[in-house]
Automatic annotation (TrEMBL):
<dbReference type="InterPro" id="IPR036388">
    <property type="entry name" value="WH-like_DNA-bd_sf"/>
</dbReference>
<dbReference type="InterPro" id="IPR000600">
    <property type="entry name" value="ROK"/>
</dbReference>
<keyword id="KW-0859">Xylose metabolism</keyword>
<protein>
    <recommendedName>
        <fullName>ROK family protein</fullName>
    </recommendedName>
</protein>
<comment type="function">
    <text>Transcriptional repressor of xylose-utilizing enzymes.</text>
</comment>
<keyword id="KW-0119">Carbohydrate metabolism</keyword>
<comment type="similarity">
    <text>Belongs to the ROK (NagC/XylR) family.</text>
</comment>
<dbReference type="InterPro" id="IPR036390">
    <property type="entry name" value="WH_DNA-bd_sf"/>
</dbReference>
<dbReference type="InterPro" id="IPR043129">
    <property type="entry name" value="ATPase_NBD"/>
</dbReference>
């Protein structure tokens, strides 16, 4: 019976947390109205959340109508996360390091080259940033790689292949962490940013210039991963195995057009989310308009161009860290 009571109380605590997280400030009577939980229980729950530092209490707060009442405010600074975003620029790997609060607001950012692409350099990077980040409660990693059962199976120019990535992180810190492919995070983050339903079938393609494309397959709010998380790994298509990364913007546009026609036939998505350099968008649109295969296919997807890479990746990592918690961005 005690276990059942504890479970019910934790469920109610999460409901109150989620409600305040979404609305930021609410009076106790508004919490009761929204949750249908009794005032006595709500008073007990919010007291615990105030004591834990998740809520601020503003007693006797004046109201527009009625007598003053207690108002509660969510504390977005209660937990911070440290995000490591590995990205390519001119065939060189860089890492952007963000500190974010529970709302996903960027509190700090650093950028540095990651010349030595090695497990020891990766661990040193984490350790050095944790030394000066005492408020960090969790970590998030976006990497140009696919991961299966703690092992990198396919990565940027094969530089990280076969890294035991989970082991490497756990040797440095015991903080909770989440790690995911960059194309997946760009796609999910942009859908959240534009309030596009993750329940649809979506193909995301992240295609930096002079690089290989990363592809995300999303259906019914779940990623389609495949064996060893290699589903959609476009660099293994015959065209890429033969010719490698594109040398010109025109070649990239043609490659992207061919990829889209292929995935449109295989997946028949509602939408394509395309993360490309804005300068080549006209070339891509022209190539898509001239693609004879697309014109013959019955599925007519919507094309959405990702216009804010940084915001999208931070949102994607926030979603990854707090998915299925009271701070889940996809819940509202």
């Amino acid at each position: 019976m005690t276990t059942k009571k504890n479970l019910i109380r934790q469920t109610n605590l999460n409901r109150v947390l989620s409600l305040l997280y979404q609305h930021q400030k609410l009076y106790s009577s508004e919490i009761v109205e929204a949750t249908k939980i009794s005032m006595v229980t709500i008073n007990s729950l919010v007291k615990e959340l105030v004591d834990d530092g998740f809520l601020f209490e503003h007693p006797n707060k004046p109201r527009e109508i009625g007598r003053p009442a207690t108002q509660y405010e969510f504390n977005y600074d209660r937990k911070h996360s440290l995000l490591f975003v590995f990205r390519e620029e001119n065939k060189q790997l860089y890492v952007d390091i963000f500190t974010i609060d529970l709302k996903g607001e960027r509190l700090a950012k650093q950028t540095r080259p990651f010349f030595d692409v090695s497990p020891s350099a990766f661990q040193l990077l984490i350790a050095n940033h944790l030394k000066s980040a005492s408020t960090i409660a969790s970590l998030g990693f976006s990497i140009p790689a696919k991961i299966s059962e703690g092992m990198i199976t396919s990565s940027w120019y094969e530089k990280m292949d076969h890294w035991p990535i989970h082991q490497l992180i756990e040797e440095v810190t015991d903080l909770p962490y989440h790690i995911q492919n960059d194309a997946h995070l760009f796609t999910i983050g942009h859908c959240l940013l534009k309030q596009l339903p993750l329940s649809e079938t979506i193909v995301g393609i992240y295609y930096p210039q002079n690089s290989m494309p990363g592809v995300t397959l999303l259906a019914k709010s779940s990623l389609i991963e495949g064996h060893d998380s290699l589903a959609g790994e476009a660099k293994y298509f015959p065209m890429f195995l033969d010719q490698g990364s594109p040398e010109t913007p025109g070649e990239l546009a043609e490659n992207l057009s061919s990829l889209i026609a292929t995935y449109n036939a295989l997946i028949a998505p509602d939408k394509f989310v395309l993360a490309i350099d804005p300068d080549i968008k006209p070339l891509v649109e022209e190539s898509l308009a001239q693609n004879l295969y697309l014109a013959k296919q019955p599925n007519s997807p919507l094309f959405i161009y990702l216009d804010d890479l940084e915001t999208s990746i931070v949102l994607g990592l926030h979603w990854l860290i707090y998915h299925h918690t009271p701070f889940d961005l996809a819940c509202y």
